[in-house]
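The freezer alarm interrupted the setup, so I double-checked each line after restarting. Inputs confirmed:
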Amino acid sequence: METLYHSTRDAQSVMSSKQAILAGIAPDGGLYVSDQIGTVTLDVTQICAQDYHATARVVLQTLLGDYSAQEVSDCVTGAYGSQWDTPAITPLTPIGNDWLLELYHGPTCAFKDVALQMLPRLMSVARTTEGDGQNVMILTATSGDTGKAALEGFADVAGTGVTVFYPDGKVSDVQRLQMVTQRGANVAVCGIRGNFDDAQTEVKAIFADANLRARLASDGCVLSSANSINVGRLVPQVTYYFDAYAQLARTGAIKAGDQIDFCVPTGNFGDVLAGYYAKLLGLPVGQLIVASNANNVLTDFITTGTYDRRRTFHKTISPSMDILVSSNLERLVYYLSGGDCELVASYMADLASKGCYTVNADILSKLQTSFGCGFADDDATRETIRNTWAELGVLIDTHTAVGKAVVDKLPASGRQRVCLSTASPYKFCADVLAALGADVNGLDGFACMDKLEELTHTTAPSQLSGLRTASERHADVCDRAEMPAFVEAACKRVFA
Ligand SMILES: *Cc1c(COP(=O)(O)O)cnc(C)c1O
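Predicted 3D structure, all chains:
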């Protein structure tokens, strides 16, 4: 059955899921949502009896109904293959009395791989059946992590290319190597003399440059982004909530039908929103706990009903959660409002003009029924890393530790609790080492990796340690003014 999507701010123009994935964001600035979510529920007993791939197929088919069964199956097989270091894809392991859902076993060792291994494949299929024959060049400015996940996801995917700009000298050694060693005939990587904001601002200017876009179009190329608000990034994340439940049932800790809680280290609200979608699809979820770092705008929102981004931005040791405007929250507000586009549009207009909005009492009450919240600053995060290692023998990264710190402060719910683990501790070696009390002064990325292995008798994932011997393929560094020409040249080369 076709799944119809429309903007959170306007229900009038509807489109298929393939079109929504190609478009990314709605022309009115809204996010694509479907009113069909929740009209069918999945059979939890059946899900408990099947593997990750089977569950991924059911979830995708339900939320992206206009993809054929064959298309879905091909995408799932391609996205969750041998590039993952475990056939379980997202294994569930014990952490004290709770559970850790390890989302970092993909090619870049962070949870964004779950979505970014899938999105390119969904786009590639949509392009052949819905597109106008144009090739798609994904254009990204990165402060470190997203760029690599996009490169890995789009590498050698037919009809697509990916160009990534990073601030030269301002990403970690390991992050730079992850990007400059990237393989694939359709990838382009370039350092910028400047900071992340320079790169980001110029990327936005390139998207807005009508002349450049026209020249690219005449060469058969459109620019697109792999932003986390794309439906094709959100939907794949629903799978692991169901699969976590299935894994938990197989341990005997729950039986099908029992409610469980999830705690989610949150930035842009994509990950935890996928948990809410799972709940709408019939997964027995007690609470979804939204864990924030010092940028605790969501803690305040869930507590008071007022979203207020007018506050100091904190740079923390969990950088992927350093966000003051959580874009995907707009989708949640849409669903909690009962699908009131006008109301959502008015809140978003308030956010844009005044920097804040307050939801009505009905929305607040529904919000507090489904969601718990809390935050942890850097000191609490470090303490949690140290204690979790010392007392439970489990090594966690800085983002996961924010979630664990929040869960530890909450009263027991009487339900099993699953903490989502969003990155390998080896991806944030220096901060994890420092939290364990080691002196990291003067150590480069690989020295930190060695020291963390030595100290904890754990092993760095080969995706990261293998970078030591990988050859560098992308030496380009340019000035901001040269970025448009770099993109044009990349399109010419990739789609020649
Ligand atoms: C992106 C990211 C997050 C935040 O996820 P959202 O979907 O933006 O809420 C948390 N941890 C890590 C390691 C990430 O890369």
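Quick read of the result. Residues 307 and 365 are 15 Å apart (CA to CA).
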